[in-house]
Design brief:
With about 160 residues, this protein is mostly beta strands. It is elongated, with a radius of gyration of 20 Å.
Length: about 160
């Protein structure tokens, strides 16, 4: 994911050891890529309700970049983040269901949440269509950086089981 922004700030900004003057055009880029591997175990499994909990190992590759045309600096960080994974699937009518799924964990250094709520539809036995809302939130508060982001959007997806 990449977010670009531009504008001016009415006071000097010191970022990553570089001083940017007040009231000059600035460009910023926030990049946050993540790669995950999840193990989840269903602790409850009935015909209409399924509940699972597990562990996600996430590798995040992030950077924040700031430039003003004369100076530029970028703070990069790659690291491992352990997360708790959860999933609740409820089939409330034939072929229709509700899905709550996510990864989340908080620590003194920061937090991460990635949660999806969706309505699901199974048009055929091995395919599911979903429409929902996804919220991504998190960041870090450590000596070198303070950064948090909240991103949310509509999700449309298809799962095909082989």
């Amino acid at each position: 994911m990449r977010l670009d922004a531009s504008g001016q700030i009415d006071r000097p900004v010191r970022f990553n050891g570089v001083e940017f003057a007040a009231n000059v055009p600035l460009k910023a880029r926030y990049r946050f890529d993540s790669y995950r591997l999840t193990y989840r175990y269903d602790i409850y499994r009935e015909e209409k309700l399924r509940v699972g909990i597990g562990f996600t190992g996430k590798v995040r590759d992030a950077s924040v970049r700031l430039e003003d045309g004369e100076r530029e600096t970028e703070n990069k960080n790659t690291g491992f983040v352990p997360l708790v994974n959860f999933r609740v699937e409820w089939t409330f009518a034939e072929s229709f269901g509700l899905l709550l799924e996510g990864d989340a964990l908080a620590a003194p250094q920061g937090r991460a949440e990635d949660v999806l709520v969706a309505v699901t539809y199974e048009p055929v036995e091995r395919a599911t269509v979903r429409l929902g809302y996804r919220l991504l939130e998190g960041g870090a508060d450590v000596d070198k950086v303070y950064t948090f982001a909240l991103i949310n959007y509509i999700v449309v997806g298809v799962t095909v089981r082989l």
